[in-house]
Amino acid sequence: MGKYIVRRLLQMIPVLLGTTFIIYMMVFVLPGSPLDGKCGERPCPDAFVKKFEEEFNLDKPVLLRYLLYLGNLFRGNLGTNFYGNSVLDELRQRFPTTLELALIAVFFIIVVGIGLGVIAGIRKGRFADHLITVTTLILISMPVFVIGGLAQMVFGLKLGWFPVTATDGTFNQLLLPGMVLASLYIAYVARLTRTSLIENLRADYVRTAKAKGLTRGRQVGLHALRNSMIPVVTYIGLSFGGLMGGAIVTERIFNINGIGFFLYRSITQRDGVSVVGTIALIVIVYLFVNLLVDLLYGVLDPRISLD
Q1: Same domain, yes or no, for 140 and 258?
Q2: Do 110 and 202 share a domain, yes or no?
Q3: Is residue 215 assigned to a domain?
Q4: Number of domains in the chain
Q5: What is the DSSP string of the chain?
Q6: What is the pLDDT tens value at each position of the chain, 307 positions in all?
């Protein structure tokens, strides 16, 4: 396993290089200038433009700028944004809030998504199965901003169960945004769990367990469900990066001062250094979560070798 982990860590380097290169080129090569709007409707003075370009290396060729940025990145420095603030410090302040939001969403995905999938799988063709199928289809067909607005109106304003905004980022304030962020993934996980469980319940080893006299609960929980979790765990792991990045819409709706809102603001303000640094952080988190998911395969199914 040690060799596998080292190999995966080495594989992360070209992925990080490729991702940052593509994003850097998209941000700094596409038409437009970070100076747009800096001085209001009037053009910026030449002295200001010259100082700004020298400070952020905008007067150098783009490949050289990228290499300079890359050198800082491997030293743990994500650069200074166009407002003179350290991008790493900005992200350090906001990362705990977004991470907590993502973990709350993962909790709902695991508990609600897998739970609904198990119920639908063991009650295939019955009323509960049809109800869960229709509900998940409704969730899949609705955009996140619609679900978020409805959740604010119903659970926040009318029922008063949750705060409608999460400006302070407390656990109680993040519960409703976490459910909204998890809603689409809950639907997919429920459907994936149902399909995988139904397939495993038809397998020979489950019929053998039934012939040996095992109870229905042990057939499902001990045998079929464990093997059904491999594709589900894969999907949840792959979704974690999406939860971190996909929090942009949710954080905008609930006014959460997290990484998603910071990325949105950086894009609208053409703050390229912050955009590249934020995406680099999300990619790093995604890669390490992916590694953790691969290590969990051996726990779920000892037959899977990582060497």
Answers
A1: yes
A2: yes
A3: yes
A4: 2
A5: -HHHHHHHHHHHHHHHHHHHHHHHHHHHHSS--TTTTTTTTSPPPHHHHHHHHHHTTTTS-HHHHHHHHHHHHHTT---B-TTS-BHHHHHHHHHHHHHHHHHHHHHHIIIIIHHHHHHHHHTTTSHHHHHHHHHHHHHHHS-HHHHHHHHIIIIIIIS-SS-S--SS--HHHHHHHHHHHHHHHHHHHHHHHHHHHHHHHTSHHHHHHHHTT--HHHIIIIIIHHHHHHHHHHHHHHHHHHHHHHHHHHHHHTT--SHHHHHHHHHHTT-HHHHHHHHHHHHHHHHHHHHHHHHHHHHH-TT----
A6: 677 778 878 888 888 888 888 888 887 776 666 666 566 667 777 776 777 777 677 777 878 888 888 887 777 777 777 777 788 888 888 888 888 888 898 899 989 988 898 888 888 888 888 998 898 888 888 888 888 888 888 888 888 888 888 878 788 888 888 888 888 889 989 988 888 888 777 766 666 666 666 666 666 666 666 777 778 888 887 777 677 765 778 888 888 888 888 888 888 877 878 888 888 888 888 888 878 877 776 666 655 555 5
